[in-house]
Specification:
alpha/beta; Rossmann fold; 6-stranded mixed sheet; 6-stranded parallel sheet; 9 helices; 12 strands; 36% helix; globular
Length: 282
């Protein structure tokens, strides 16, 4: 007879969060390890973040993710940060250890793994990244550490982009530069173009306001948005002859890394990916 009926709970805090498909993916990862763990989406407004973090700690969550808009705002409430999270200046994963909350970042590592799985060597590549938020920071830093030659950050808030530019130039051997995002902004010549903004995330049907004439055949274009899998930006870039990748692979690999941090076990990323594909095929 089963004697312990307490569920092991993990989850994510975000606002908005209804469209996030993570529970399907994470619970598939737990199942691949034979773990009866659950993953809950919790909508938390920015002004309630502190008390929400105290709440999940009090309820003895076994792991936590943070998504838009909490990846930077949660840092002051952590007891410690991993080295990479400290450099990046954003967190997407929280570990609970001996009553302490430790901030980690798996976004950038998940992105790099996704590129590698798709046969893309980042060494010497020229990147253009749209956006300078938490996900962009993680991607830029990890790609710089992976050997990218240059990263151009395009963002509307120039101060935010300049901060990321300085971080990359001072902490890595990669060359970073900034372009202010104005309507129809031109995309400089590059090998990889990354949309690291929330534009196009369900139910938003929009596309980043850039000059699409600058997307050329053979260019690699990556949208980090997982829902829908094929955003208007993804479809447009594909029409223009680019080699395009959606955000689901990055979501899977950063999630698999989070599970490994929480449990000490390596889940099946293939089972996690299959669960997402089945979800979006419905």
């Amino acid at each position: 007879m089963k004697t312990n009926f307490r569920l092991r709970i993990t989850g994510a805090l975000g606002f908005p969060i209804d469209e996030n498909p993570s529970p399907v993916m994470f619970e598939a990862g737990f199942a691949s390890l034979g773990l009866d763990w659950r993953y809950q989406l919790i909508e938390v407004r920015p002004e309630h973040l502190k008390v929400a973090l105290q709440g999940v700690q009090a309820m003895q969550f076994d792991g936590l993710n943070l998504t838009i808009p909490h990846k930077v705002a949660a840092i002051p409430y952590m007891d410690d940060l991993s080295k990479s999270a400290s450099i990046i200046g954003a967190i997407n994963t929280v570990l609970f250890r001996d009553g302490r909350m430790i901030g980690e970042n798996t976004d950038g590592k998940g992105f790099v793994i996704s590129m590698e799985k798709n046969g893309i060597n980042l060494q010497g590549k020229r990147l253009v990244v749209l956006g300078a938020g938490g996900a962009s920071r993680a991607i830029c830093v990890e790609c710089a550490l992976a050997g990218c030659d240059s990263i151009t950050i395009i963002n509307g808030t120039i101060e935010k982009a300049k901060e990321l530019e300085t971080l990359i130039n001072e902490q890595t051997s990669c060359r970073a530069s900034v372009i202010e995002w104005t309507p129809g902004v031109r995309i400089p010549e590059c090998d990889i173009l990354i949309n690291a903004t929330p534009v196009g995330l369900y139910p938003d049907p929009g596309m980043p306001d850039i000059c699409y004439d600058d997307i050329r055949p053979g260019m690699i274009v990556q949208d980090i948005i997982p829902n829908p899998a094929h955003t208007p930006f993804y479809k447009k870039a594909k029409e223009l002859g680019a080699t395009v990748y959606d955000g689901q692979s990055m979501l899977v690999y950063q999630g698999a890394l989070a599970i490994e941090l929480w449990t000490g076990l390596t889940p099946s990323d293939e089972q996690m990916k299959d669960a997402l594909h089945r979800l979006f095929a419905e």
